[in-house]
Amino acid sequence: MNTNPAQDTAQGRILIDLFLSLDGVAQGPGGTDEDTSGGFRFSGWQAGYPSPGTGPQVEAGMHGLDALLLGRRTYDIFASYWPLHTEGESGDIGNLFNRVPKYVATRDADIALDWAGSTRVGGNLAAEIAELRATHREVHVIGSLDLVHTLLAEGLFDELNLWVYPLLLGAGKKVFDDGALPAVLRLLEPAVTDDAGVTFLRYGRTERVPEVGTFG
Prior knowledge:
Elements: E1 13-21, H1 54-61, E2 67-71, H2 72-81, H3 91-99, E3 102-105, E4 118-121, H4 125-135, E5 138-142, H5 145-154, E6 159-165, E7 185-187, E8 192-193, E9 199-205
Domain Bacterial bifunctional deaminase-reductase C-terminal: 14-187
Protein name: Deaminase
C-alpha cells in the first residue's frame, strides 16, 4: 500500500490537527476534566491560554473537511458536546461535525455509537484508511493522541497541522513518541504566530527519510 497518497491527487488526504505545548504535550487541552490520566495536572491548558489566532485558523482549515477520524476518547467528548452546539460562535463547526461521517478507531466491537453518522473502524486500520481516502477528499483527525501515535508509526497521514503554544507542561502525553516512523516533513506554508505567541505549523509528509552526515 502506498502510505503517502498525498502525491496522488485522485485520492483523499488524512490530516492530523493537534494543539500542543512547546515541549510536545498534547494531553487534555480543552477542559479541566478532559484527561487527567497519569496524574496530569494541566488538563485544560489550551482553554486556560487564550489565542486570538487559533480559532480563525481552525475554522479556515475545516472548509474542505468531509469526514472525521477520531479515537475513542475524543469521539466521546465530541459526541457529548457538538450536537448541543449548533448556534452562536461555534455553530458553523458544530453543524459541520454533525453533518459529516464520523469514523471511530477502536478495538471495541460492541461500542455504542449514538452520534448520527458514526461508524467503527479499527479491525484493519491501514486497509480502512485506504478506503477512507477512496471515499473522502479530506479526513481530519483531531486530538485522538493514541490514534495519532499509530498513524505516525505507520505513515498513515498526509498532512500534520500543529498549533504550538509557548508553554512548558513537563510530564504528559507527547505527540511524538519513540514509535514515530522516521520521515522528512515539508513545510507547506510559512509559519504564522499570533499575538499570544501561538505558532501554526503546517507540514506535508514526504517519502524521504532523514539522512546523516558529519560536519567537516
